[in-house]
Amino acid sequence: MNRGRARQTIFHDSQYFQAFLATLAEAHARFDCIIHAYCLMSNHYHLLIETPKANLGRVMRHINGVYTQRHNKLKRTDGPLFRGRYKAILVEKGAYLLQLSRYIHRNPIEMANPMVEDLAKYPWSSYPAYIGETEPQDWLTRDFTYDMLGHRYKYKQYKAYVLRGNDAEIADFYSKVKTAAVLSSDDFKHALKGSVLANASEKVVVKQLQPELTISDVVNAVARFYHCPISQITSVIKGPSKGFEGRKVAMYFCQELLDARLADMALFFGLGHGGSVSFITHQIRKRRNDDKQFAKRLSDIFEHIMKQVT
């Protein structure tokens, strides 16, 4: 979740809401995050997302950064939009995910002055799609939530579940001045490296959700995959080896997996500026989308890289 600076409005009209949804679609496509639910309010948003690739930081940097650019372009302004980095809560997949889905979808009416009388009429959340009132976004995942209800009539039963109101435990969890960083059963907390996360800070939790990787880790792994010296990845090469695939792929994964600045990546790879990195990674993404065999190779390289943190 995140909120506008000084609680300022971040969604002014439908253009802004649509721009944010487009940004979510891009994050889903680029980083393989699973979006279970969303609710966009006037000055904040809630997302229920799953990150199988342990790349939460990269996902959120894209969402907050790209939307800020789009907001400022529409508003003809500049500067930061959000109050700071996003707030992250680790949620146990199970009953807590179902309850949190309900909490997120009830946001428009859980206010002193409700935004709508009927939640189905609020267009900027995933709730209307969950109850069959609108077509879902292609990137919205609902089946896991439906399966947890265990009912045959999924639209009707999910609607009844949401309209019953929030669970007392969830309401208490969010009513606290300092919200905890883990929403789960005690067994789940203890299963995460003993009891390390039982009373963990958000910083510790987020650290568990993203890989302990550096640019050097990515480069070393890519070099091993391509059976080439590291210098062939990091150095600007002229002649027959110019345009070496492994070098471009290394830049691509540094951008996809790490929270690294383009300027730092450019310096590491011997390039003049961050724009060169952005151009090269754009080429790789385009090839990935056009070439299934290459996309499969990228998937294999990703698995090879991630072995370093397992």
TrEMBL record:
Q: Which domain of life is it from?
A: Bacteria
Q: Which residues form the Transposase IS200-like domain?
A: 1-107
Kindly state a single biological-process term from the GO annotations of this entry. regulation of DNA replication
The family database entries (InterPro entries) matched by this protein are listed as: DnaA_C, Transposase_17, Transposase_17_sf, Trp_repressor/repl_initiator
Q: Which Pfam families match?
A: Y1_Tnp
| Limits of the Chromosomal replication initiator DnaA C-terminal domain | 214-284
User: Which molecular function GO terms apply here?
Assistant: ATP binding; sequence-specific DNA binding; transposase activity
Q: Which residues form a coiled coil?
A: none
Q: Which residues cross the membrane?
A: none
Q: Please name the PANTHER family in this protein's record.
A: TRANSPOSASE IS200-LIKE DOMAIN-CONTAINING PROTEIN, TRANSPOSASE, Y1_TNP DOMAIN-CONTAINING
Full protein name: REP element-mobilizing transposase RayT
